[in-house]
Amino acid sequence: MKLLILLFIIVPALEVTLLVASSHWIGIWPTFLMIIATGIIGAYLAKKQGIAVLREVQYRLSRGQMPTESLLDGGCILIGGILLLTPGYATDIIGFLLLFPITRKIVTYWFLKWIEKKIKKNNQTIIWK
């Protein structure tokens, strides 16, 4: 529930506030061009990184290995690409963090530690359809 409040109320409010402040500080057209540029750069980086991860998954599968890290990287790239296509500065920062391999490794490390903690507490949620 808290996550939904964060996603649907706080994040859009923060983005609108930052975009309005940016348009007052640097102007409407530079703000507009920044939104367009981050979308284009984000799409390019997501495609490039996504293809690299897909090749890594195929390589690991061909060797009979589980591509666990590669699949996690692919999920981060997908989320990062979506965030970069969403207008706003906060989502762009998070999106770039998920696309660059160096920062993506840090994010995936934190995510795995969080999952590990949930499992140790036996507090995981299983959704069954």
Describe the overall structure.
This is FxsA family protein. Keywords: Membrane, Transmembrane, Transmembrane helix. The chain crosses the membrane at residues 25-46, 70-87, 93-112. InterPro entries: FxsA. With 129 residues, the protein is an all-alpha fold. The chain has a domain at 35-120. The protein is 84% helix and 0% strand. It has 5 helices and no strands. The protein has helices at 2-25, 28-62, 68-85, 89-99, 101-120. 16% of the residues are buried. The mean pLDDT is 88.
Rough outline: flat
Got a strand count? Answer: 0
Question: Low-confidence stretches at least 5 residues in length (pLDDT < 50)?
Answer: none
Helical proportion?
Answer: over 70%
Distance between the termini: 20 Å
Strand content: under 5%
Summarize the biggest pleated sheet.
Answer: none
User: Measured on Cα atoms, how large is the radius of gyration?
Assistant: 18 Å
- The average pLDDT score comes to 88
Number of helices: 5
Structural class: mainly alpha
Could you spell the SSE succession in H and E letters? HHHHH
Transmembrane segments: 25-46, 70-87, 93-112
Keywords: Membrane, Transmembrane, Transmembrane helix
Pfam families: FxsA
Protein name: FxsA family protein
